[in-house]
Amino acid sequence: MNLEEMKLEMVERIFRVIPDIVFCVKDAQRVYRAANPAFAHRLGLKSEEEVIGRRAEELFSAELAVVYREQDEAVLRRGEEFTDRLELISNREGELGWYLGSKFLLRGVGGEVEGLVSISRDLDTPSVGDLKMAGLQRVVEWVHGNLEGDLSLEGLARIAGMKPGQLERRVKRIFKMSVGQFVRKVRIDLAVRLLKGGELGIAEIALRCGYSEQSSLTRQFKAAVGCPPGEFRRRMLAE
Questions:
Q1: How far apart are the first and last CA of the chain?
Q2: Which of 7, 75, 159, 231 is buried most deeply by CB count within 10 Å?
């Protein structure tokens, strides 16, 4: 076993004992070469051994497989790594859940691209008690009730009676995401609920979610969910 293989084995051992972090390694052909038990659990599989040697197309829905293939190609071919990207995807029960995903290039000793490492973390909803202790309950209520208003970091900091940096740190500690990501999450959550209702047009939904243009909703919705709002609605109504 060479040094690089020893490093990878150590990383696998570390992530094997962290239940709320999903971890996997793919080679340059996007084939899974390593995964932790949390990855298998999210897919409803008995063991991570069922993941090894397969591609995303064999494990995920067609919609998600397309998203993951595009992400992998961007990382592997163009070096477009990303950290803590907010994603709304189906969990093992088929319910939508929020995650923070990161992907990084895996290089050999000579610098050649050998694959990528993917890490995903579940985002749990904090309790009311946590929000009160952190002084964030008023901010959370304001965001939910004023999606068409000023939801900038500075504006929300004034609502909270904090400095912008202080609010950013507290939101990061409680929600595990930035203020901007939290606002985006609230908007997309509302869009999902309205799209499932099947009554409002997408342009009206965009306005209710605080987007001045339908294209802005479409762009952020696709980035988070993996498909445009119209396609998401058709899929939901077909189930």
A1: 49
A2: 75
